[in-house]
Amino acid sequence: MSDEYDVTIIGAGPVGLFAAFYAGMRNLKTLVLEALPRPGGQITALYPEKYIYDVGGFPAILGRDLVTELYKQAGQFGADFKFNERVESLEMLEPGHLKLTTTEAAYSSKTVIIAAGIGAFQPNRLNVAGAAELEGKGVSYVVREREKFLGRRLLVIGGGDTAVDWSLELRNWASEVTLIHRLDYFEAHQRSVIALYDSQVNVHTQNELVGISGKDAVERAVIRDNVTGDERTLDVDDILVCIGFRADLGPISQWGLNLEGRKVSVNRQAETSMPGVYAIGDIAYPQDGVSMNLIAYGFGQATLAVGHASHFIHPKERVTHGHSSQRKGMKYAPTPGSAQS
Ligand SMILES: Cc1cc2nc3c(=O)[nH]c(=O)nc-3n(C[C@H](O)[C@H](O)[C@H](O)COP(=O)(O)OP(=O)(O)OC[C@H]3O[C@@H](n4cnc5c(N)ncnc54)[C@H](O)[C@@H]3O)c2cc1C
Known about the structure:
- By secondary structure, this protein is α/β, with parallel strands linked by helices.
- 20% of the residues lie in helices and 29% in strands.
- The protein is elongated and about 70 Å long.
């Protein structure tokens, strides 16, 4: 089949983008199918303006900037990208020949790498008085522009990395930041928690939001101390809610793959229960390893899956291959003599 791709990557999140780059390194004819209109997955949808500190090579990089660089890197070998196309079904016609049907078209591919993250996702909504009415009028679940918080009084809700990172970052923009969390400890990187307690953020653990009020926009929040039961009112302009996400695997759960909860089980080769179909990034559940929802970890899985996909298509080829300086024709390679001393 001349229009058959060597590898089709489902999902253009950070891990899918890096897999597309790596597939290009292996000279594989590559297709990337993405349900959303833009690349970047969770980064683009949920935290484009947050700094990321734990990706190699960048001491700190804005989410949107990382996506721009990954997309640039992924596209340099001519991979085809199709946005606004959700993959609805995946069938194995025979080993080495797979059919993918999206909301728009059908494609054939020798191998598939599923990098669908947490599937279709949306933030958990607050279930307190006033939250639904004032959503978009001061109550938000995603930060799209940090500038929006300039000079305003912000209340952040949550106890994970997202709540802690945003409290620290938005302290540079808001006039006042208060963070409340219902437990007595934070489930965030230790360094960030230390930085939080060293910062000017007002931190109140074992406190919970019980109500929000305001005429046309947020004006006040009522919080309850879970130890004493006392309630008090804070004057605030914005409430940023960071209490996790709900994910739905969507059609992927119907493809006959072995699943582990809401993840796809993979073996040491990053291969699923369907031959020639691999899973990487947040969606993958390594049966004999650990599952880590981190971009850096997903990058490693991408190199592994692409190596095995390449070997699956061309059994004489090695799973591993040389490093990138052995690859000719890199679009962004510096010209001779331009390397910095
Ligand atoms: C608020 C927040 C902050 C975070 N901060 C960090 C951080 O600082 N450092 C870090 O390492 N990690 C961080 N993470 C985790 C990190 O974002 C994820 O580990 C990473 O996005 C996983 O990448 P992925 O490509 O596997 O999946 P995703 O980013 O989820 O991308 C998957 C893509 O697949 C698409 N898709 C799903 N199903 C289909 C389908 N059927 N057809 C077509 N497309 C489909 C989705 O639309 C999505 O675009 C954070 C996560 C959140 C929520």
